[in-house]
Here is the input.
Amino acid sequence: MREFQQRRILRRLMYSNVSIFFLLVIFIFFIFSIADVYNKSREAIKKNEEVSSELNDIKSKKDYFEAEIDRLNTNAGIEDELRDKFQIAKPGERVIIIVDDKKDDSEDATPRKSLNWFWNIFGR
Here is the structure.
């Protein structure tokens, strides 16, 4: 008989409002913890994608610079760079520099034309 009474007391404790409230609080705590872990997981995935794209950019720059270094290690590459940067010519060659000295006449003439009608009115 005592055994049945102990079971009854245990059931009353388990199904009491206090124990249900306590279990509900624990459940809510777990839900918030899971949501926090999920958000951190999403942020980590996003950060990983950003780092991967940055790594690919850096690798492509590395390949470009290695190709430039290989090109500059040859005599032809050095000669091309010197010709481009310093406009150097070999003996017997001439360097021609083309300067575009064309001014936009419409910009300079517009103020003069607009003032010409003013001067014509006053006879100047």
In short: The mean pLDDT is 84. The radius of gyration is 42 Å. DSSP finds four helices and no strands in the chain. Residues 17-72 form the longest helix (56 residues).
